[in-house]
Write a structure and sequence with these properties.
The structure is a homodimer. Chain A has 2 domains: 7-224 and 398-411, Aldehyde Dehydrogenase, Chain A, domain 1 (3-Layer(aba) Sandwich); 230-373, 3-Layer(aba) Sandwich (Aldehyde Dehydrogenase, Chain A, domain 2), CATH 3.40.309. In chain A, the strands form 4 sheets. The first copy, chain A, has a 7-stranded parallel beta sheet, sandwiched between helices. In chain A, strands 5-4-3-6 form a 4-stranded parallel beta sheet, with helices on both faces. Chain A has a 3-stranded antiparallel beta sheet with strand order 1-2-16. The relative contact order of chain A is 0.13. The first copy, chain A, is of the alpha/beta class. In chain A, 42% of the residues lie in helices and 21% in strands. The radius of gyration of chain A is 24 Å and the shape is globular. At the A-B interface, helix 10, helix 14, strand 13 and strand 16 of A face helix 10, helix 15, strand 13 and strand 16 of B.
Chain lengths: 418, 418
Amino acid sequence: MRDSPSMQDLAKRARGASRACARLDAEDRRRILESMAEAIEGASASIVSANATDMEAGRSSGLSNAMLDRLMLNDGRVRGMAQGLRDVAALPDALGEELERIERPNGLVISKVRAPMGVVLMIYESRPNVTADAAGICLKAGSAVILKGGSEAFHSNSAIAEAMIEGGRSAGLPEHAIQLLRTTERADVHELLQMDNQIDLVIPRGGEGLIRAIAEHSRVPVLKHYKGVCHVFVDETADVDMAQEICVNAKCQRPGVCNAMETLLVHQACAEKFLPQIGRAFGEHGVEVRCDPDALSILGAGVPATEDDWREEYLDLICAIRVVSSLDDAIEHINFFGSGHTDAIVTSDKQNAERFLREVDSATVYHNASTRFTDGAEFGKGAEIGISTDKLHARGPCGVEEITTYKYVARGQGQVRT
Amino acid sequence: MRDSPSMQDLAKRARGASRACARLDAEDRRRILESMAEAIEGASASIVSANATDMEAGRSSGLSNAMLDRLMLNDGRVRGMAQGLRDVAALPDALGEELERIERPNGLVISKVRAPMGVVLMIYESRPNVTADAAGICLKAGSAVILKGGSEAFHSNSAIAEAMIEGGRSAGLPEHAIQLLRTTERADVHELLQMDNQIDLVIPRGGEGLIRAIAEHSRVPVLKHYKGVCHVFVDETADVDMAQEICVNAKCQRPGVCNAMETLLVHQACAEKFLPQIGRAFGEHGVEVRCDPDALSILGAGVPATEDDWREEYLDLICAIRVVSSLDDAIEHINFFGSGHTDAIVTSDKQNAERFLREVDSATVYHNASTRFTDGAEFGKGAEIGISTDKLHARGPCGVEEITTYKYVARGQGQVRT
């Protein structure tokens, strides 16, 4: 067993490590990440064995099969984690990039350059692969990371972290650049959330309850990934076959993810034509529908929707359906009930499309495409640490770039202000 | 007297107005700002007369002369406010700008575009011109704004807001896009700070105490402008004449501002040479020095510094001085005691300069130039709403761009995910 440092010590060590991380160059970071990947592969047997301990405890404590599946590691999944680290290593390095250059009349040259965030606190549940993913992305972004995984994955996370740190160290990983929090005390986490002088950013990954609790208690800024109550609005002039294909894809291709459609809005002028058609398609895919009175009467089937349905992230083969009388009503419904994640319009009217894209206040908005494209890989980010539903700092899919900051670097020859 | 809406109503109206603001185009915004400027000039007499009421109350309640000077408005200052609005109107429009474009193999085109933040709550003290400045910048950035000024400027702020709203309305300013909070109850402000569903951003302008209190109570993200404990580090190889000019400028040109130098760090290898020289120059400018033992013994004068001096933002003709034994010590001192605002190195050693610029974790870092350049105008931002000492979202001088967000706008032809 290791000693357990106090939260103050842990955070101070992370701050110290972040200074050392800021001194690494792109090639250092690449080499360290490769070495971490190799070490994880090399430790596969002990990681899988530590995971067996968690799985056994999970089974006795009655974790659901879905939870157990998320928790489970085997050789293939461990190789997947290592590959994830290699993919991050291979990404172009973001730090030091000049984002803007201001040349002043007095000769002062001011560069806005991408810089490391500093210390990131990552709080997550169940999936042990987040241990490797988050450490990799933070390190690539030049930051030190404190990892706090779920207690159900304690042994798995410890084994992964130990291997990564060991492997990283041999390639120059600064001491304490990756720290796994071994406490299970909620008070310890709350203590860390007060340390806005030592920790620069908190990223919670998990259910809405976890994220809200952290956002409420934290003095450190939180990058929030709340739920995805995603809409598709089928406008008056929509190509109904395209609309059907998009809606089936958005709802059924993978219903358990945050970019799946939860509410379908249909313009009243095409409801008589479109609803029976999508009703049949949903029926074939086993989708349960919760309808407003108009949709109910056209479909002649389904469960009446309550107001709660408009706010619900089902993550399941359930779809709320509402008939709206105009584009404005659709936009208002989405801005009022939506979660600012992803929303789409299907229309042949370019003007309506542009109004929807501009006025729907969400991280990602689509014209004539499925909501399912909102993720880091599809956006070419290489690795994803979450999808922000915030408006400050980062919005939508977040990769390495989104957990960096910038600074202004000014070079002069003795300039003073007059 | 007007009715006083509840905080809930006020925030809801702002949210509604933000939707209307998002529908304005660049020319609408320009025209509204011009009309606001004209209305302020036209209302100069009534603004100055409202200000006289505040000034009288300020005098009876014993406001300092410095406070009274900040509060005071005359015809010239009102014209200055109007000119400020015209300057903002003339800035290039930032909204809708494509920041990045991703073209996917399936033909989906994803644009990252600059988008309005939504609703901004501006909380400020004494200076009534902030009423006009903040409203102008928020409107230019496409957001609705709730203004909460200091109670000592209540009549002045009301007169300015009334004129702006009246003038803006005649040019198409959406109703409730600018609202002045008429309450003096702290509980009302606290209520607003909980409304993270209606308000997107809080910007406090004022003393450190005000900002800390808001940051602690707010669930809405806060753009913080804490103090400026700015350093100049005079390195071993510094050109001492250049160093003296920079230090005198950074300390004496305008000591009461956040980008003035508060602590001077001198490399021990040039302390014997540089300190007596800067000591004489400071003496001529009436600067009081607070010194560590080494500096004290070399200078043979000054007050011994306590640890508090290293954290102090004097905003006055006082300078803390410390002799350090290396570049590393200087960087460590700054990262530990500094406020992340602005720091400078004077050196002829390019490698040391680059290390300092990279490793000092501050919003703005300078090589061979005065700290006094950190402000919106010098950075070409046209208008400034503050200087952020945060690392998330916006760092350093904040203008119109810094109070916008972005969104991903994807245009397809029926793409679905496979």
